[in-house]
């Protein structure tokens, strides 16, 4: 802060205290973090085949983690980690699940996901849920598995790693339902 007038700092409620307690302190302002990388550098791939694969994976995870019910499934494309990529999400929900069953599924899910190379985190507070991720080709693949006791809703969301599709196709997919 040597290039700043000390008179301007003495009336500032924050910087006056900092300057008084740490007269030898210099403030360094770092540049902004880089924004979204424009290109992945990977060749474009087929979105249709990828989406079908993700839907199958979500169905398989539902079968492993829950094993019952006919969940409602929604699918959509979201922005990927680069300007020429997208991610695919599949969200599955099942209503009318008892607290005993819902919480039981969550307890078992942590061990199951950990055994299949997912990094698992179960937040200690809030809605009962498990978040998990693992590295993919273009960003991490993610799972959110939770239970809303007040409504009896069990839910699973699988979010894919990034899929390079090209900028124009990325805009088309994000603007449309899959």
SSE inventory with pairings:
Elements: H1 6-10, H2 15-21, H3 47-65, E1 72-79, E2 85-94, H4 99-115, E3 119-121, E4 129-136, E5 139-148, E6 153-159, E7 163-164, H5 167-174
Antiparallel strand pairs: 1-2, 2-6, 2-7, 3-4, 4-5, 5-6
Task: Summarize, please.
By secondary structure, the protein is α+β, with helices and mostly antiparallel strands.
Primary descriptors:
alpha+beta; single chain; 7-stranded antiparallel sheet; 178 residues; 7 strands; flat
Number of domains: 2
Q: Ranges with pLDDT <50 over ≥5 residues? A: none
Percent of residues in helices comes to: 25-40%
The average pLDDT is 88
Order of helices and strands: HHHEEHEEEEEH
CATH architecture of the largest domain: 2-Layer Sandwich
The CATH first-level class of the largest domain comes to Alpha Beta
Identify the overall geometry.
Answer: flat
Overall structural class, as computed from helix and strand content, comes to alpha+beta
Can you offer a commentary on this structure?
31% of the residues lie in helices and 27% in strands. With 178 residues, the chain is of the alpha+beta class. The protein folds into 2 domains: 30 residues, no CATH class; 128 residues, TATA-Binding Protein (2-Layer Sandwich), CATH 3.30.310. Strands 1, 2, 3, 4, 5, 6 and 7 form a 7-stranded antiparallel β-sheet that branches. The mean pLDDT is 88.
């Amino acid at each position: 802060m040597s290039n700043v007038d000390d008179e301007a700092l003495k009336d500032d409620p924050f910087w006056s205290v900092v300057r008084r307690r740490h007269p030898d302190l210099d403030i360094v302002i770092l540049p902004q973090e880089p924004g979204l990388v424009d290109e992945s550098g990977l060749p474009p791939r087929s979105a249709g085949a990828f989406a079908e694969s993700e839907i199958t994976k979500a169905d398989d995870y539902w079968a492993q983690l829950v094993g019952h019910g006919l969940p409602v499934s929604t699918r959509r494309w979201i922005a990927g980690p680069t300007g020429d990529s997208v991610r695919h999400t599949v969200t599955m929900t099942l209503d009318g699940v008892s607290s005993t069953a819902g919480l039981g599924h969550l307890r078992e899910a942590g061990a199951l996901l950990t055994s299949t190379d997912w990094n698992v985190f179960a937040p200690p507070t809030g809605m009962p849920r498990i978040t998990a991720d693992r590295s993919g080709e273009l960003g991490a693949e993610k799972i959110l598995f939770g239970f809303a006791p007040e409504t009896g809703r069990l839910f699973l969301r699988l979010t894919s790693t990034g899929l390079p599709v090209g900028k124009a196709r990325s805009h088309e997919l994000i603007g449309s339902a899959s």
